Amino acid sequence: MGHLQRNLATTRERLRDQVAHALRAALISGELKPGQVYSAPGLAEDFGISATPVREAMLDLAREGLVEPVRNKGFRVTEVDERDLDQYSEIRMLIEVPTVGRITRSASREELEALRPVAEQIVAAARAHDLIGYLEADRRFHLSLLALAGNDRLVETVGDLRKRSRLYGLTALDESDRLIPSAEEHIELLDLMAAGDAEGAERCMSRHLGHVRSLWAEGGQKPLAAQQTRARKTAGTAGRDLGAVS
User: Fold this and answer.
1) What are the distances in angstroms from CA 175 to CA 122, 130, 166?
2) Helical (H) or strand (E) element with 74
3) 2-79 adopts what CATH topology?
4) Residue 30 and residue 24: Cα distance in Å, rounded?
5) Are 161 and 50 in contact (CB under 8 A)?
6) What is the residue-level pLDDT of the chain in tens, covering all 246 positions?
7) In terms of Cα–Cα distance, which of 136, 126, 122, 221 is closest to 179?
8) Which of 39, 154, 186, 230 has the greatest number of CB atoms lying within 10 Å of its CB?
C-alpha cells in the first residue's frame, strides 16, 4: 500500500502543479483579471476536475503574491499599479546592476557560458510567442546569474520581486514582437560579462531593466481586444496540457 500511496501523492502533486501552471498562464495573459475574485469550485468546473487541486494551486499562487485569499469567496487576483512597478524596478536596479558587475569580475568564463543556452531559449521563446516559456527561461537566467554572487537571500529577494510584478502588458507586447529586442539583451549581457567588461555589463543590465519597465508601461496601453485574443490562445494551451493529466 505504501507504493500505491506514493503514486497517488505524486499524481496529485503533478495535477496541482499543472493547475498552477495553467492559472499562471491565465494571469500572465490577462484572462484572469486583476481585482476580480475567482472561486476554486468555479475554476475547477472550467478545468473539469475536482476543486481540491485548484484550491491547493491557488494557495501556491497566494504565497507567490499573485493572488490573495478572500474569506468565503475565493481568491482575488493581485492588482499591480504603476507605482508598484516603479518601486519593483528601482529595487531590482539597486540590486542587480552592481551585482552583475561584481559577478563579471569574479565568475569564471565557464560559469557564465553555462547560461548561454538559457539566454538563447529566451530569444527562441519570444520569437515563437511562447509566453510561459519566455517567462520561465527569463526567470532561470536572471536568478541563475545572480546565484553566482553566492548570496541566497539576494536571489530570493529578486525572485519575489519578479513574481509580484510578473511582466505587465506581456501579451500585447508579444502581439507586436516587442519582446524580441528585450530577449536579445540577455545574450548581449552574457557577451559583455564573458569578455570581462564589468562596466559594460552594468550599463547593459541597467538598460535592460529600464527597457523592461518601459515595456510594462507601453504594454498596459495596448487594446484590450488584442490582449484577450492572446489570452485565449495561451490559456487554451495550458488547459490542453492539464486535460492530458486529468
Assistant:
1) 16, 11, 17
2) strand 74-77
3) Arc Repressor Mutant, subunit A (1.10.10)
4) 10
5) no
6) 444 444 444 566 788 889 988 888 788 767 888 889 999 999 999 989 999 999 999 999 998 778 999 999 999 998 877 788 889 889 999 999 999 999 999 999 999 999 999 999 999 999 998 887 888 899 999 999 999 999 999 999 998 888 777 655 677 677 777 789 889 999 999 999 999 999 999 999 999 988 777 665 554 444 333 334 443 443 444 444 444 333
7) 126
8) 186
pTM over 0.85: no
Which helix H or strand E contains 76, and what residues bound it?
strand 74-77
Name the superfamily (CATH) of residues 82-219.
GntR ligand-binding domain-like (1.20.120.530)
Domains in the chain: boundaries:
2-79, 82-219
Cell numbers at residue 3, please? 507504493
Q: Which three cell numbers stand for residue 126?
A: 519570444
Spatial distance between the Cα atoms of 207 and 98, rounded to a whole number of angstroms: 13
